[in-house]
Amino acid sequence: MVTEAEWERVQGELRFGQVFTGTVVRVPRPGAIGVFVDIGLSVGGFVDVVLLPRRRSEDWPVEGTVTEFEVWWVHSGRQQIRLKPSDPQYLCEDFADFVARYRPNWPSDIGKAVSGCGVINP
Q1: Residue 1: per-residue pLDDT
Q2: What range(s) does the S1 motif domain occupy (predicted)?
């Protein structure tokens, strides 16, 4: 964990849809939780299970995978940047339907500051 001041600083620099090249550093329970990603900031990144391929956890990125991720939202309580894979091979098969159902404003959120947006986990 980082200090509250550092967390606020990091959040203040983030934009929805901002792309980071990251390295998958941990896949604790394939098919059940999600993956932890190092995106080169003092705060960790995480891709939730709902954004990863559902049919086969073998299609998830494995530890050491380097690929691009986009800022999806932030989890202030955990001081965590929530990401979505940019590469469609690592994205859930029904992403368009998922967005329509849970984040219909996603396209218009892209480029906006995440700080103070109040986005919650779908």
Answers
A1: 78
A2: 17-86
